[in-house]
Design brief:
The protein is α+β, with helices and mostly antiparallel strands. The protein folds into 2 domains: about 130 residues, no CATH class; about 120 residues, no CATH class. Helices cover about 10% and strands about 25% of the residues. The strands form 4 sheets. Strands 2, 3, 4, 6, 7 and 9 form a 6-stranded mixed sheet that branches. A 6-stranded antiparallel sheet has the order 15-11-10-14-13-16. A two-stranded antiparallel ribbon has the order 1-12. The radius of gyration is 21 Å and the shape is elongated. It starts with a strand and ends in a 17-residue tail after the last strand. The N terminus is likely disordered.
Length: about 300
């Protein structure tokens, strides 16, 4: 196994919408280092069902109910000066160029911080989705769960990174699916460590004669996770299928829940390694990889 390295617009909004304007700054505002995501990320893709998540990261936790004297301090400086603790998180923004880690101070002031040992996502009083490194046990009453209708696209930017689950209301998949050309699709990518869109070419493979589909591939826009390290692994394909380009990898997906992938599947045979398609499985990741993955090598 080896690691192979690979590789106009609108004003930012936090609610998954944008307006026309000049290109936003090239800065990603990534608060978490070179990977572009919190270090506790699971790195595992969720099942893409399009249903809202039941995860605790998408629901409001315990609140201070306004009885904490430290809650009167609205910024970190005054909070710390008063001997209190500032519970800070990283905001998520969405614009015409994709999903980004936002800049600025987002959080709240408490007498004592603490909480569950898990990443969490809540919306602030203005509706900005904010990612915390843990689940706060003292979340203020005016913070709470984000809304699929209002913040669904911003939630879709982050669901993969913390396994918030079920494609965060399905908003990102719907957004990518509505982009019908390669240029507009690939423009919506944003910061590493978050999700975006990618134009791919897929084929419909059937385990019959001929074994591999000879029809031209179909291009479309799908949601993907943007890897922070821009790398991927050779997952030991068959000897007769040594990849020509080690910076790309094939993925497979079901055509429907009641059709086994041993008989029929959708194949993405040329995905750059810095992207991981959401809702697809990488070929040869285990011994149960469908034989039809071999169609990516012309077998």
């Amino acid at each position: 196994m080896f690691l192979a390295l690979s590789p106009a617009c609108g004003d930012k909004h936090s609610l998954g919408e944008w307006t026309g304007g000049d290109d936003p700054s090239g800065s990603t505002g990534d608060p978490s280092g070179s990977t572009g995501k919190p270090s506790d990320s699971t790195g595992e893709p969720p099942d893409s069902t399009g249903e809202p998540s039941d995860s605790e990261t998408a629901t409001a936790g315990p609140t201070t109910e306004g009885d904490d004297p430290c809650s009167q301090h609205a910024d970190k400086a005054s909070c710390v000066a008063a001997g209190c603790e500032f519970v800070g998180g990283d905001p998520i923004e969405v614009d015409a160029n994709g999903c980004h880690w936002g800049e600025g101070e987002f959080g709240f002031c408490v007498s004592e911080s603490g909480g569950g040992d898990a990443l969490s996502l809540y919306c602030d009083p203005d509706g900005v989705p904010v990612v915390f490194p843990f689940v706060p046990f003292n979340l203020p009453a005016d913070w709470g769960a984000c809304d699929c209708e209002l913040q669904g696209l911003a939630l879709g930017c982050y669901d993969f990174a913390v396994n918030v689950g079920q494609a965060a209301c399905g908003s990102l998949a719907a957004h990518c699916g509505a982009l019908t050309d390669e240029a507009s699709c690939d423009q919506f990518q944003g910061s590493p460590g978050l999700n975006g869109c990618l134009w791919v070419e897929s084929t419909h493979e059937v385990a019959a004669e001929p074994v591999c589909n000879a029809e031209p591939p179909v291009g479309r826009c799908i949601p993907v996770y943007l890897r922070g390290d821009h790398g991927c692994f050779d997952l030991n394909p068959p000897p007769s299928c040594d990849p020509v380009d080690a910076a790309k990898s094939p993925y497979w997906g079901r055509v429907s829940d009641d059709v086994p992938p041993s008989e029929e599947l959708e194949l993405l045979d040329d995905v750059p390694c810095e992207f991981e398609p959401i809702g697809y499985q990488q070929c040869w990741i285990d011994e149960d990889s469908p034989a039809l993955c071999g169609c990516a090598c012309g077998l």
